[in-house]
Design the sequence.
C-alpha cells in the first residue's frame, strides 16, 4: 500500500506539548474533550473544541487580514509548520486562491527574501561541507519512507536567476502541491536544497544569508557531490522519485541524461513544462480545428523549458506519422543571438537538434515574418518581448494565433493577457506561466489559460509512485499531456479556455496518474502488479486531510 493507515502510529504516544509541537499529529483545538484527557492536553488548549472547518475558516480570515502577498505566504508557511492537517485541508478547499501565494508568483519574492523569512524544519539542506557524509544527513530527516524528493541547487530559480540556498522555497512549494493536487501524503515528501555556493553578489555579501558565501563549485567536484546525493538517496530511500528543479542550463540537461536510466528522476523545468504546454496546444488545436503536425512553432528562448517543450512536441508529432527529424523541422528557436540555424558555430549541445538549414535572422520579429509561425511560445525569462508589433504580426498571419507567454514569475512574462487580447483584437488563444485575471474587451470576457506545471507533475508523480516505475520516460509526459487536454470541457473550449479549472485538479491528477501508470505497465517498468481497477486503486491511495 502507498498510503498506509498507520502512517502516524509512531507519534501516537506523544502527549502534552510534544504532541502540540508535532505538525504531523497536532490537531490543535480539534482535539476532543476525551482526547485532551487521554493525551495530557487539558489546560494547554482553550476549552472550546473547534471542528476543522471552523479552524480552516479562521485561517482564511487571518489570511485575508494580511497586507501583502509575502505576509500571506509567511502566514501560510507558519500554519504548515504547526499543523499539517489544517494546512492541507485549507489549501485543498481554497486551491485557486492560495496557489499563487504558496507558489508562483509569490514564491519568487519569498525566495528572494528567504533568508529573512527562514523557518527551520521545512526541508533538508545538503552543502558542500557534507561531502562524504550525505547518507548521514539524509538519515537525520525524521521520516524514513520517502517517496518523492524535489531537489534544487538554486542556480536558476524561476526567471530570477541564482538565489543559492534561498531557492529552498521552490522545493517546499512543489511538495505542498504534490500533497494538495495529487494526494501524496506529506510524510512521504522531502524538499532538498544542495548548496554549492552562489554567484549572486547580494547573497555573497549579505550577513544574514543562510547559505554558503562562496562562488559556485563547478566541474568534477560538483558532479561528484550530485552523484553522492543520488547514490545516497538510492540507498536510504530506494522507492523515492527525484524531481530536479531549477538547475542551470549547463547542468539540467546533462544531469537528466546521466541519471534518467539509473534512478526514478525527471526534470520539471524540461519535462513538466513541456507536458503542460503540449496539453495547452492540443486544447488550442481543438478550437482551431487543426492538427499538431501541421503547425509551425516558434520559440523565444532555447533553454531548459523551450528545448524541453520542443522535444516533447516533436515526439507527439511522430504519433501523427512524422519521423522525429521531420517533426523537429516544425519547431524553430530564437535565442539571445537570433534564429537557431545550423550555420551558427556558437550553439550549445542541447540546441543542435533544432538547428535547421535556413538563412540566419537576428531577432524575433524577423523570424515571424520569415517563418510564418502558427504558434508562438515564450520561454525566455525576459519580459515585454512579445511587443505589439509581434502580436499584430502573429494575428495578421493567423485567424486564431496561439500565443503562450510562459516565463515566471509574472514580472518576467513576455506579455500580459490584456496585451495579447487587445493587440490581437480578441483573436489570440493565450496562456501564461503565472496567473492573469480575465480581460474585458469589446463586451467580451476573455479568460487566459495558465500553463501551470501543477497540472502535470503531481499527477505524473502519483502515477510513478503508485506503480513503482523504475524509470521515468518521455512517453509518460506525452500521456499526461493528452490526458490533461481531454479534461477540458467543450463548454470551456467555446469560451477559449484551454485548461480545466484548478478546482478540479485532484480529479485531473487521478486521470493523469492512471494514464502514466498504464504507460509504466505497458513499458514493463513497474515494480508492483497492476490493480484490477487502476483508477479506484489510485484514489484509495490519496491522502485526504481530515
Sequence:
Amino acid at each position: 500500500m502507498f498510503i498506509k493507515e498507520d502512517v502516524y502510529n509512531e507519534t501516537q504516544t506523544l502527549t502534552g506539548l510534544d504532541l502540540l509541537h508535532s505538525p504531523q499529529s497536532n490537531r490543535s483545538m480539534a482535539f476532543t474533550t476525551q482526547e485532551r484527557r487521554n493525551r495530557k492536553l487539558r489546560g494547554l488548549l482553550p476549552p472550546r473544541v473547534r471542528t476543522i472547518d471552523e479552524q480552516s475558516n479562521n485561517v482564511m480570515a487571518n489570511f485575508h487580514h494580511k497586507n501583502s502577498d509575502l505576509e500571506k505566504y509567511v502566514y501560510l508557511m507558519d500554519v504548515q509548520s504547526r499543523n499539517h492537517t489544517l494546512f492541507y485541508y485549507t489549501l485543498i478547499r481554497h486551491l485557486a486562491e492560495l496557489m499563487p501565494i504558496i507558489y508562483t508568483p509569490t514564491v519568487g519574492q519569498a525566495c528572494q527574501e528567504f533568508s529573512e523569512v527562514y523557518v527551520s524544519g521545512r526541508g533538508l539542506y545538503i552543502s558542500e561541507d557534507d561531502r562524504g557524509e550525505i547518507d548521514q544527513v539524509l538519515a537525520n530527516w525524521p521520516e524514513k519512507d520517502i517517496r518523492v524528493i524535489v531537489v534544487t541547487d538554486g542556480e536558476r530559480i524561476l526567471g530570477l536567476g541564482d538565489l543559492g540556498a534561498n531557492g529552498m522555497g521552490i522545493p517546499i512549494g512543489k511538495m505542498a502541491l504534490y500533497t494538495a493536487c495529487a494526494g501524496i501524503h506529506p510524510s512521504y515528501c522531502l524538499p532538498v536544497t544542495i548548496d554549492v555556493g552562489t554567484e549572486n553578489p547580494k547573497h555573497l555579501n549579505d550577513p544574514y544569508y543562510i547559505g554558503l558565501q562562496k562562488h559556485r563549485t563547478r566541474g568534477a567536484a560538483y558532479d561528484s557531490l550530485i552523484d553522492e546525493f543520488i547514490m545516497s538517496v538510492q540507498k536510504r530511500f530506494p522507492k523515492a522519485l527525484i524531481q530536479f528543479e531549477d538547475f542551470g542550463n549547463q547542468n539540467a540537461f546533462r544531469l537528466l541524461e546521466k541519471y534518467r536510466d539509473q534512478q526514478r528522476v525527471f526534470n520539471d523545468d524540461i519535462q513538466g513544462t513541456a507536458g503542460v504546454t503540449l496539453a495547452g496546444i492540443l486544447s488550442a488545436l481543438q478550437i482551431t480545428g487543426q492538427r499538431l503536425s501541421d503547425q509551425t512553432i516558434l520559440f523565444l528562448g532555447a533553454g531548459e523549458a523551450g528545448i524541453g517543450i520542443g522535444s516533447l512536441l516533436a515526439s507527439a508529432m511522430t504519433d501523427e506519422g512524422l519521423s522525429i527529424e521531420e517533426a523537429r523541422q516544425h519547431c524553430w528557436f530564437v535565442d539571445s543571438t537570433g534564429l537557431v540555424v545550423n550555420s551558427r558555430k556558437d550553439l550549445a549541445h542541447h540546441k543542435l537538434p533544432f538547428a535547421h538549414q535556413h538563412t540566419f535572422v537576428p531577432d524575433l520579429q524577423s523570424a515571424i515574418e520569415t517563418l510564418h509561425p502558427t504558434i508562438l511560445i515564450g520561454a525566455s525569462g525576459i519580459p515585454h518581448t512579445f511587443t505589439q508589433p509581434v502580436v499584430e504580426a502573429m494575428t495578421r498571419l493567423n485567424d486564431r494565433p496561439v500565443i503562450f507567454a510562459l516565463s515566471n514569475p509574472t514580472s518576467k512574462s513576455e506579455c500580459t493577457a490584456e496585451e495579447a487580447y487587445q493587440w490581437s483584437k480578441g483573436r489570440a488563444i493565450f496562456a501564461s506561466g503565472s496567473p492573469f485575471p480575465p480581460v474585458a474587451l469589446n463586451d467580451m470576457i476573455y479568460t487566459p489559460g495558465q500553463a501551470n506545471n501543477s497540472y502535470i507533475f503531481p499527477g505524473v508523480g502519483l502515477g510513478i509512485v503508485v506503480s513503482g516505475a523504475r524509470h521515468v520516460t518521455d512517453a509518460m509526459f506525452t500521456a499526461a499531456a493528452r490526458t490533461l487536454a481531454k479534461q477540458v470541457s467543450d463548454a470551456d473550449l467555446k469560451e477559449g479556455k484551454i485548461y480545466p479549472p484548478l478546482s478540479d485538479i485532484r480529479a485531473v491528477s487521478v486521470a493523469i496518474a492512471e494514464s502514466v501508470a498504464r504507460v509504466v505497465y505497458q513499458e514493463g517498468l513497474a515494480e508492483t502488479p497492476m490493480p484490477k481497477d487502476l483508477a479506484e486503486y489510485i484514489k484509495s491511495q490519496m491522502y485526504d486531510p481530515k
About this structure: The chain is about 45% helix and 10% strand. Residues 95 and 503 are 7 Å apart (CA to CA). The two ends are 20 Å apart (CA to CA).
